[in-house]
Amino acid sequence: MFAFLANPDRFMAFSRWAAPLFGALAVALITVGLWFTFAAPEDYQQGDTVRIMFIHVPAAYLAMFSYVCLGVASFLSLIYRHALADAAAKACAPLGAAFTALALITGALWGQPMWGTWWVWDARLTSVLVLFLFWLGYMALRAAIDDETRAGRAAAILALVGLVNLPVIHYSVEWWNSLHQGATVFAADRENRLPPVYLIPMALMALGYTSAFGSLWLVRIRAEVWRRRAATLALQAAGG
Amino acid sequence: MSPLVVLLRRELALAWGRGGGPLPALAFYAGVTTLLPLAIGPEPERLAVIAPGIAWLCLALASLLSLERLFERDHEDGALDLLALGGPSLEAICAIKALAQWLATGLPLAFAAPVAALMLGAPVGLAPVVFACALVGGLAFAFVGGLGAALALGSRRGGLLIAVIVLPLFAPPVIFGGGALSQAAMGAGQISGLLLLCGWALTAVALSPLAMAAACRNALD
Questions:
Q1: Is the pLDDT confidence value at A121 over 70?
Q2: I want to staple A50 with a disulfide (CB 3.0 to 4.6 A). Which of A43, A130, B75, B108 is the partner?
Q3: Coil, strand, or helix at residue A240?
Q4: What ipTM was estimated for this complex?
């Protein structure tokens, strides 16, 4: 797939219809997912606030998924020095930061009624906040270096270093005692697993969020490619 | 004499000889430690609880200070180009530079850390643990910070940018060191926090020279 999309012309032809397709898919999935969200029964302990889960968990998943995307794009741009991979990494950063911020905000809104506090300095929450700071650092580094290729490569090195942070986030719940609950979607024992009435809207929302991310990412990469082409044309016009 | 030993002596001479050596970092450390009781309130019982952690965090901040010149100095006058052309690999050169950074500022700060903790009211028994954390943590701070300094080469806002890049990477060592200090304060004789800190420091020493060298090559291209 990477080899096919590495050709900019083929990528632009593919993303031209793929971006709106993913967008339409995202709207459909999120609409149905929201309908299931409000149709789901109240939790016997949490009541109505359990519905925050369907917005919070997919956002938290995407916060990490988008970082993996950034890592892969950075790896490809660093090893193969491919301009399109660099554009993909650049386009990914604001989206990832937005999903991470969404996870933090919805988590705080859920924590207030359930734990009685907006924020605790717990391992999982803190590591997601660190992930958010990392996105900011990534964007700051890219913005601070004038030369675009050089900025792209420095940012790619930073992104690969930051990949160390992802496993820490994932296992932090098991490593440190935490107020945050453990994994329930893929839990091994049946008793702790999420029941289907909650699992179906969660899966729909997760797929919807992923499609939305894919659509926005493609749109942003396309915009970055057009911006670079326009900059090249402007340089040529100025020179000739 | 091996070229790397010569390089280490040069780095140490540069770090100690110009700009007061470790004095600015120590003065910053003393200044922040002085301002904290003014901000929090001077009640000894309140300060004693947070003293080791505060001393530890201020140390992390103080070790950020002198990072800006670590690579930029050599990048500006072309010495980095010559170093990259020479015999030893750029990875080894970066490791030596980070090691010199630790010897020049990390070690003096490690000796100052127990003093700061005691002044803030930490029990005397905690001083060895504070020193050990500062010593090992300083090594991790120097190598991870060196990575930030190498990445920020050729940017416009060096110092601030290094802090923004490096502070998220400081999170694990700060967590492990804080864990070691609270374990010591409880007096259960556990040292798992300190061991985790040592592990993180060794990982940073092993891996960050690779990234530092890649960042330097990127800046030199």
A1: yes
A2: A43
A3: coil
A4: 0.83
